[in-house]
Amino acid sequence: MEILKRDFLIIGSGIAGLSLALKLKELGEVVVLTKKRVFDTATSLAQGGIACVLKDDNHFDLHKRDTEIAGDGLCDPTVVDLVVRSAPERIKELLDYGVMFDRDPEDPKRFHLTLEGGHSRRRILHVGDYTGRAIENVLIQRAIECPEITILENHFVFELILEKGCYPPTCRVVGVYAIDLTDSSVKIFLAPVVIICTGGAGKVYLYTSNPDTATGDGIALAYQAGCRIANMEFIQFHPTCLYHPKAKNFLISEALRGEGGILLNADGKPFMHKYDPIRKELAPRDIVTRAIDMELKRTGAECVYLDITSLPSDYIRKRFPYIYETCLKYGIDITTQPIPVVPAAHYLCGGILTNIWGQTDIPNLFAIGECACTGLHGANRLASNSLLEAVVFAHQAYLKIKEELPTFKKWALHLPPLKEPAIKEIKEEKVFISHNWDLIRKIMWDLAGIVRTTKMLDFAYKRLFFIRREIEENWEALYLDLDVMELKFLCLVAELIVISALQRKESRGTHYLLDYPYKNPFYQKYTILKKNF
User: Are 116 and 48 in contact (CB under 8 A)?
Assistant: First the structure.
C-alpha cells in the first residue's frame, strides 16, 4: 500500500480547491485529489457569473441587503459583510490569473455587468454564458504550471484518517484513504492540513443541474469523522433547466431573465406577476421555483417556457452563445422559439459547518465551497454568490493556514493502525446497485423536493433507513465500482437532508413545508446534525 506525504491535501478540483492550491504553493507541496477528471466539476457548468460591487451606484450595502433578503433572515451578517467587501480583491486575482471577463462594448474600459434574480443592481461579471468553464480552465492551467501542485485524477477518498485514541473535537485529521480508480489500489495520503472542496449533492435528486460527481462525498466524510453538519434542508432548486428528453443537466442561466426573458405557462401566458408582482421573473430563486411548480401542478403540464425572442437575434447569439448552440442542437432556436424549462436541484445552501476561516470542528480540517455551510447563503442563495464565496473562503483558509502552519507542522502525527482494505468487484449484483441509486433519487424528488409535508418526509426517512441498512448488510466492503462507493455517501446525505427538514417546523427560503407555511421568527438559525460516537 502506497503512503504519500505532502504539506497540504485538497479534495476536489473546482474553483475552491484550485484557488486555494494556487495560494498554498507558496507554503509547501500541495496534492489535489479529484475522483474523475480535473474539470468534471460544478464550477465548469456555472453559466451566469460572479457577483461583485464595481460600479459607483452599486455600493456594498446593496449587495449585502440583496444577499440577506434572498437568504430569508438566516444569513450571518458578519460573513455577508466579509464576502461582499472581499469581492473586488478576489476578482482582481482572477484577472491576474488570466480570466477574461466580458467588457462593455460601449466602454471597453468597463466590465459588462449583467442582472440576475434577487439583485437590485447589475453586478454580475461574466464570460459569455460559460463563466465557470472559463474560470476553471484558467485555474487548471495555472495549477499545471506549478511544480509544487500535483493533481491526481480518478482518486476517490472514502475515509478521513484521525489521530489515534481520541474523538472530535480533540483529535486532528492526519490524512485520508483513497482508492486509485485506474488500477484499483488503495493509497494513503498524509498531511498536516486537509481541505474538503468536494462541492454539493445535487445527484441526491432525480433531476439536477449538477455534474455526476455531486454525490455529497465531502459532507458524508466529514459527518462520519465527527463534524457538525448544518442546514441540509435548504436545497436550492434552479427554476430553469432545459426540458428535453435528450438533454442532461443543462441549465438555462438566470441571466436570460436578467436580460428581459419572460416565463410563460402552458397556455403561453406570463404568470410571475401572480406570485411576485414587483420583481416577477427577477424574484429570488426559491420564489420563482415554487411559482413554476404551482403552475405545473395547476395546469398538469410537463414544463413552462422561457421566452427571450423579444431581444435582437444577433444580441442573443453573442450574449448567450453556449445556450444558443446547445438548444439549437436539440432543435430549439431560442431567437424565435420559447425554451421549455423545468426546475431542478441546483445548490446546497447547508453543509459542513465552518467558521469565517473555513475551519471545521476537527482541527486541521477545512471545508470550502458548496460542501461548507459558512452562513453566507442562509435559507436561499443569491444568484452568482457561489463562485464568489469559493474564492473568498479559499483566501480566508489560506490566511489561517499561513498563520498557524508552524503549529500544524510541530504537532506529531499519532497515526492509528493503517489498514489495507480488500477491494471487491461488483458482478451479478450491479442491477441492485442501480436500482437503489434510482430509488433514492426518486424518493428525494417526490417526497423531499420543492414542496414538502411532514408526512412525506417521514415516509422518505423510513424508506431511506431501510435502503441504508440494506447497503450496509450487502455492500459493507470497499468496491472498485464507483457507483457502489458513491451510493453509500448518497444515501447518507439523503438521510441528513430529510432529518434536517423534519427538524425545521417552518417554511423559510428553499424549505417550504405545507404543514407550517409561515416563518417562525424565533426558530433556530441552524439545524445541526452530528454523529454520536
Answer: yes
Question: Domain check: are 142 and 127 in the same one?
Answer: yes
- d(CA 241, CA 229) in angstroms, rounded, equals 28
d(CA 195, CA 197) in angstroms, rounded, equals 6
Residue 480's pLDDT is 74
Alpha helices in 411-453, H assignment, sequence order: 430-447
Q: Do 197 and 84 belong together in one domain? A: yes
- pLDDT over threshold 70, residue 509: yes
Is residue 415 a part of any domain in this protein? Answer: no
Specify which residues 4 forms β-bridges with.
189
Q: Yes or no: say if 192 and 409 are a contact pair by the CB < 8 Å rule.
A: yes
Report residue 362 as a C-alpha cell.
476537527
Instruction: Please tell me the distance from the alpha carbon of residue 504 to that of residue 525, in angstroms, as a whole number.
Output: 10
**Interval 444-485: pLDDT, tens:** 999 999 999 999 999 999 999 999 998 888 887 777 788 889
User: Is 285 a catalytic site residue?
Assistant: yes
Catalytic residue chosen out of the listed positions 133, 285, 381, 441: 285
Q: Stretch 83-100: mean pLDDT, rounded? A: 97
**C-alpha distances in angstroms, 466 versus 139, 169, 446?**
42, 30, 17
Count of C-beta atoms within a 10 Å radius of residue 454 = 14
**Assigned C-alpha cell, 390:** 469559493
Domain holding 268, by residue range, is: 241-345
pTM of the model: 0.94
How far apart (Å, rounded) are the C-alpha atoms in residues 211 and 214?
6
Strand segments (E) across 442-489: 478-479
pLDDT tens digit string along 321-330? Answer: 999 999 999 9
